[in-house]
């Protein structure tokens, strides 16, 4: 959903007509500006939105919404400095400079805009500028706020500086020792630097700290941690350990929701362990009870496609998942992958490009797109997609596989 700074109604004291006019100004700015952008007329879009902003001499909320639309549009067009200027104008308009913020509304807006500015600089390779925004956020939000620390961890992680990310998360945990999400983030980073044993030990130590498993809240924590351990083993490609962990989680499951979660975890772990019979039968068991479960439909279809078996059935399963959740990037990736396996390269490219449009962070999707480009003879585009995949993935098996593809493609140039 497109975020706007205009609330669902007018400010207290404003009449309904003013509120409606404000919303209409934002709607028109969004619709017309993006129409110009889609037609490739970025300058016209900028001029139109700038004129709309100039008309709002007293309405800060409408101006804020229009600045946001302008900044996002310039971001999409790759105009980094202009987009940053629009975001800076939005911050200034709302009294957010370098002093500590004073209201929750300011914090909400500042967090959203700082996230966009960090992403803007990161995607354009201006990492030091992204760090500057994070440092600014540290001042604005104060040391008792986790925003800047988490933003720096994400930046390090997304730019293949995982040891630095690990150091930063440990620093953050020292200040927020009760935050279990930071504990899991540390475990994920340990896993990503090749220390799955240490990662699992961290979660097991947390289980030991929890204590009595019979308490309902503690039982939920134990179950959640066991699912998390399974995911660590899956990501580390330790299939047998993942399968054993998933079976433990299934024994801990209480109620339909936990049982369903455990079965999805079991199916994924079994696939990683090459126990395809268990993986498939588990998902078919879910679908027998819930034929329209999109996760089960997608996962079964993807696992079949990944193995290169029953591709027509896989296509139907994934298509049915997308009918339920049409913009899910994982399902779009799955559809692209099964279309690739079926030889439908044009459709595969469309599916994968759409998946990346929705979520640029999946190394697997970028690798799949590189495979499609390569099969189509688009070697330069394949190399670009594969190099992006390497920057997003971390396991040596994945990195080496993609490097082999790159080497083979470069020989053909």
The residue ranges in which pLDDT falls below 50 over 5 or more consecutive positions are 1-19
Write the element-wise H/E pattern from the N-terminal end onward. Answer: HHHHHHHHHHHHHHHHHHHHH
What is the overall number of helices? 21
**Strands, count:** 0
- Structural class by sheet pairing and helices: mainly alpha
First-to-last CA distance = 42 Å
Helix content: over 70%
The best one-word shape is globular
Strand content: under 5%
Rg over C-alpha atoms, rounded to the nearest angstrom: 24 Å
The major sheet is characterized as: none
**On the 0-100 scale, what is the average pLDDT?**
90
Describe the structure.
By secondary structure, the chain is mostly helical. The chain has a domain at 195-286. It is 78% helix and 0% strand. It has 21 helices and no strands. It has helices at residues 16-38, 42-55, 60-76, 80-93, 104-123, 127-141, 147-158, 162-175, 180-192, 196-210, 216-235, 239-252, 255-272, 276-289, 294-307, 311-324, 329-341, 345-358, 363-375, 379-392, 396-412. Helix 9 (180-192) runs antiparallel to helix 10, helix 18 packs antiparallel against helix 19 and helix 20 runs antiparallel to helix 21. The protein starts with 15 loop residues before the first helix and ends with a helix.
